[in-house]
Amino acid sequence: MSGIFFNWPLAWVEVLLLVAFRILGVVGAMPILGSRAVPMRVKVALSLVLTFLLLPAIPFAQWPLEPRGFWNLAALVIHESLLGLMIGFAAQVPIWAMQAAGELIGLQMGFGIAAVIDPESGGQENVMASLLRNMALLLFLLAGGHQVVLEALGESLRTLPPGSMRLSPDLLDEGIRLSGHLLDLGLRLGAPAMAALLLTEVGLGLVARTVPQMNIFIVGFPLKIGLGFAMVAITLPGMLALFNQEIGSLSETLARLAAP
Predict the structure, then answer these.
(1) Of 77, 81, 130, 144, which one has the fewest beta carbons inside 10 Å?
(2) Straight-line distance from the first to the last Cα atom of the chain, in angstroms, rounded to the nearest whole number
(3) The pTM is what?
(4) Distances in Å between the alpha carbon of 75 and those of 27, 68, 164?
């Protein structure tokens, strides 16, 4: 009787620890909250609050009373953190794809020499990438993407109780698939504007050959900037429709990650 009395609190501490690390991985990687502009103490505090709120979703009947060894518990902590990071990464894919499209378009417009600091990653990005990324973050909130992530997190605690998750080829394959999908989506979002700017480059090259007296750099820079903004404005409804489609399918992607 005394053994059970002393083992129960330790088992509960292990449950809280594993759940907290899974949630911290999601919070540290998901859009908005995963930004470097959000202090780490805020992320940790929010993770602890979500841990206690989501405890009812855990099937405690599947949790053993015996405490686990240190190395076994450390491996489980790594597994839980990786699962949380994968869920946050999947939620970031549409945002990063929009940012990648803006980066490619901005480079062709000549914005590569006018980079600004990205407060989320701490790196540099051009003006077009910053514009499309901020627009994607706003649409992510308006479409309820944060709610989808929280629902998927709660579902993962139900289908994959703390300590039951193991690294598997299916999870790694899903990560590779998401990485490839990120590149594919970024190219699809920016393809129309990139094609128009490429044709403009070809046209300017032909003009430079036929009219060598014209200063093609003075003419080309404002032309490409104006055409780039015009093409983004024209194709923006299609870009937003594709982005909303990705947000709509986000729940299915997260469900695959949380599948037992």
Answers:
(1) 144
(2) 34
(3) 0.81
(4) 20, 11, 11
